[in-house]
Each structure stands twice: as C-alpha cells, then as structure tokens.
Amino acid sequence: MGDSTRAPTAAIIVIGDEVLSGKVEEQNARFLVRELRKLGVAVRRIEIVPDVPEEIAACVRAASATYDHVFTAGGIGPTHDDVTIASIAAAFSVPVVRDANVAATIRTYSGDRFFERDLRMADIPEGANLIYGDGVAHSRWPVVAFRNVYVLPGVPSILQRKFAMIRDRFAAPPFFSRAIYSREGEGAIAHVLDQAAADFPSVAIGSYPHVDATDHKVLITLDGRDDATVAHACAQITAALGPAVVRVE
C-alpha cells in the first residue's frame, strides 16, 4: 500500500434483495466509483449480494484480503433483513457488541420515538473503529470501519453524507486521462492499440465502440498516474491513427 506508483484499489459490495429484485434502482456503487476515482482510488470489483449472511461474509472476507479498501452499502438498521454488521463480524470471526455511546445517542435523539429495536443500530463488530468525521462533515452518527471495510447505509442521500465524513482518508495521487475519437472501427485500429499497450504498460488503454455516434466509431481512453507518460502514449496513438482521428480530449 506504500507504493506511490500503484493506485490504491477498492471493492464495492452492494447488499440487498431489493436491488437484485429490481425494486430499488442501484445508485450507491455509481456514486462511490465516481468519488473514489476523483480521489485516485481504482475500483476493481463491484458485487451485489442478497441479504444472506453467509454470502455477505464470504464476499467481504475475500474482498478485504484482496483490495486496499472495501465499502459495503446497505443492510444496516433495526429490521430483520439488516444483517450486514453480523455478517462482517462473522467474516472475521469476532462477536457483535453494542457500543454504549452510540446506544446513548440513539436514546437521546429518538426521544418519544424511541423503540428498543433501534438499539440494533448501535451494534458493531468487536474491535471496529467508529469514525465521526471532522469539521463540516462531523456527525453524531459514526461510520463503522472494521480493518479495511467501511460500512455505509443503503439510502443514497445518507450514504453520500457518510462518505463525505471519511473521503479524505482515501486521497491518493490523481489519475490523468486522455480521450481519442476514431472514425475507423476497432478492427482497423487494433494493431495501433496493441503496440501502445506494449510500449506503455503503466497506461490503461480502453477501446469502446460507439455505434450510435455520428462523427466517430470508437472512443479510445488512456488513464495513468503519470501525466507525461499518458501524453506520450496519446501522441503515439494519435500519430499512428493519422486521419482516423476525429479529435483528442
């Protein structure tokens, strides 16, 4: 994780039967991908899993061992299908414990609307960290983090506020990008991209057909951590494509 030439990696695990059944449109992974990219973090996996503790635990355990950061979205709350906390505890073979400070806050701020079941939201895996945020992002309701796993709610507006509390923890050197639009199709330009990929292994080169575009057939993207290297790769591809290039951005 200390290698400054390597982008930190992340996995996003979306939890909830409602997403898999189509009852709720998935928004959280899209938000997290965009935000993490701005921070220089490369999302390497997105999974959607049902409210099944064994599946959640297996997914979290594998992702935690593989990626630098793991973000779960959904399955935290007071109802029967909110099983994320218990599943994460099971993934790491620790018990679930009730945090006294969070429980007291729930009682205080619920007032006459308090229900004993609400205290489930004070349950955390034993040994978890509670992150309350700083400055304007500070909140009386913490983000639960266990090792490299960050537990976020499923309601998009709340997830976005929670992520604002922790986002500065993930800042890394930014990505630099270029885009080349080709009026030739993928078959005609594949050899050019093959050569560039071999010559610039630190640059991620993508090729995406745009069948409905009027002025180009393929969008070529270049992404890397060193701006000069990305620029050199872009220049090589642009020169090799010649008149096939519509524009470069």
Structure description:
The chain contains 8 helices and 12 strands. With 249 residues, it is of the alpha/beta class. The longest helix has 15 residues. The radius of gyration is 22 Å and the shape is elongated. The chain starts with 8 loop residues before the first strand and ends with a strand. The mean pLDDT is 94.
Outline:
Helix content is 35%, strand content 24%. The chain is an alpha/beta fold.
Order of helices and strands: EHHEHEHEHEEEEHEHEEHE
Number of strands: 12
Number of helices: 8
Radius of gyration: 22 Å
Average pLDDT over all residues: 94
Major sheet size, sense and barrel closure: 6 strands, mixed
Taken as a percent bin, the fraction of beta residues is 15-25%
Going across the major beta sheet, what is the strand order?
A: 2-1-3-8-7-6
Structural class, by secondary structure, is alpha/beta
| End-to-end distance | 31 Å
Shape: elongated
Summary tags:
four-stranded antiparallel sheet; 249 residues; alpha/beta
List the helices and strands and how they pair.
Elements lengths: L8 E7 L1 H4 L7 H11 L3 E8 L3 H14 L2 E5 L10 H8 L4 E3 L1 H11 L12 E3 L3 E3 L11 E4 L2 E4 L3 H11 L9 E7 L3 H14 L4 E6 L8 E7 L2 H15 L3 E4 L1
Parallel strand pairs: 1-2, 1-3, 3-8
Antiparallel strand pairs: 4-5, 6-7, 7-8, 9-11, 9-12, 10-11
Helix pairs in contact: 3-4, 7-8
